[in-house]
Structure formats: C-alpha cells, structure tokens
Write a structure and sequence with these properties.
The structure is a single chain. The protein is mainly α. The chain has 6 helices and no strands. The radius of gyration is 19 Å and the shape is globular.
Length: 143
C-alpha cells in the first residue's frame, strides 16, 4: 500500500510540474534571467504551492501524532549547515542555472527521451554518489 501511495504522489507531482510548465528548461531559464526576458510565472506557481501547503500543514500535518502510511516519521539526522551543504547547494544552483532542469522535472522529462535530459540524469546520479565514493577513498588512504 505504501508504494501505491508513493506512486500516486509521484504522478500528482509530475502532473503538477507539467501543468505549471516547470519541466520546460527555457521557461525555467527565463525565470532565472532577471536582467533579460524575465518570466515571473514560475514565482506564481511557487507562491500558490506555499499558499496551499502552509494552512494544510498547520491544520492537519503538524497535529498528527503518527504518519498515515508508514510506521514512523522520518526526519533528517543532520541538521547543521556545513561546508558540504553549502558546496552542494552551489553546485545544484549552477547546474540548475546552466541547464534549466532540476531533479524532479528531469525525471518527468525522461518520458520525452531527450539526450540532454538523459545526460543530465547521468551526471546527477554521478554527482549524488561522489560523497560516498570520496569518503570510501579517503578512508582507504587514511589507514
């Protein structure tokens, strides 16, 4: 049942991204280009999402004592802002600014089979695994 709920949530998220055109790299790049052909429509999408989520969070989600579709709430263990978080955010922002794609829309865009999207996802997967392999290498050389 949990996987079915996750599938439904993912499909709804993908449909929302598609309807709002957040999967169109040119639309995203125009949103980020505040000195050129700036397109503020994605800001309206983001503010609309917040306007819907904030009251729902405070009235329903925050008051829950246990989750609906799993046994426990799962929160991040790491809550500090450190160099790896800052560097990761910078790399993410540069990649988003260059390509106009971020992970959610990239997965939605897989259905189009664009080589640009396939390369982006490959690079994203490599980037996500760099910290794991870097720590493995550093532990081998420090012993």
């Amino acid at each position: 049942m949990t996987r079915f709920i996750a599938l439904i949530c993912g499909l709804l998220f993908g449909m929302g991204l598609t309807i709002s055109q957040m999967v169109a790299p040119n639309k995203v790049l125009n949103f980020l280009d505040i000195t050129g052909f700036w397109d503020p429509s994605l800001a309206l999408v983001m503010f609309s999402a917040l306007a819907l989520f904030i009251p729902v969070y405070h009235k329903i989600i925050k008051r829950q004592t246990s989750p609906k579709f799993t046994d426990t709430f799962r929160f991040p263990n790491k809550i500090t802002i450190d160099l790896s978080l800052i560097l990761g955010a910078i790399i993410f922002g540069i990649g988003w600014g260059i390509s106009g794609i971020c992970p959610g829309p990239a997965l939605v865009n897989l259905t189009g089979g664009s080589p640009k999207v396939l390369v982006f996802i490959l690079m994203m997967l490599i980037g996500m695994n760099i910290p794991k392999y870097a720590s493995m290498l550093s532990s081998k050389f420090n012993t």
